[in-house]
Automatic annotation (TrEMBL):
GO terms for biological process: DNA replication, synthesis of primer. Signal peptide: none annotated. This is Primosomal replication protein N. The keyword DNA-binding applies. NCBIfam families: PriB_gamma. GO terms for cellular component: primosome complex. PROSITE patterns: SSB. It holds the Pfam family SSB_1. GO terms for molecular function: single-stranded DNA binding. Keywords: DNA replication, DNA-binding, Primosome. It comes from Sutterella seckii.
């Protein structure tokens, strides 16, 4: 299923990052595996004609088969993440990267 299939506005992210911190493997009440971690990103890009260095940490999570594969990664692993931005839970307003695929 794609964004076009469901008719919503686009919300996607693709970013390279290093796994720096992770929670213990856990499961939802429905038995779905969860990956919950912190990643570090560092890059240089051009903004308004000037080189800008970006460096920051961000929270990310994933569910199901993708979470299972992510939970097998060691801290320090460098990956390319694809996913979307959303709140971590219905009770939170803080944005988190929800990982749908990686390599």
């Amino acid at each position: 299923m794609t964004v076009e299939d469901v008719g919503f506005e686009a919300n996607s992210i693709e970013i390279g990052a290093t796994l720096i911190e992770r929670e213990e493997v856990r499961f939802t009440p429905a038995g779905i595996e969860v990956f919950d971690a912190v990643f570090h990103h560092r890059s240089r890009l051009v903004e308004a004609g000037k080189i800008r260095t970006l460096e920051y940490d961000f929270e990310a999570l994933s569910y199901g088969d993708t979470a299972s594969r992510l939970n097998a990664l060691a801290v320090g692993a460098k990956i390319r993440i694809k996913g979307f931005l959303a709140t971590k839970s219905m009770k939170s307003r803080r944005l988190t990267v929800h990982i749908t695929e990686f390599k």
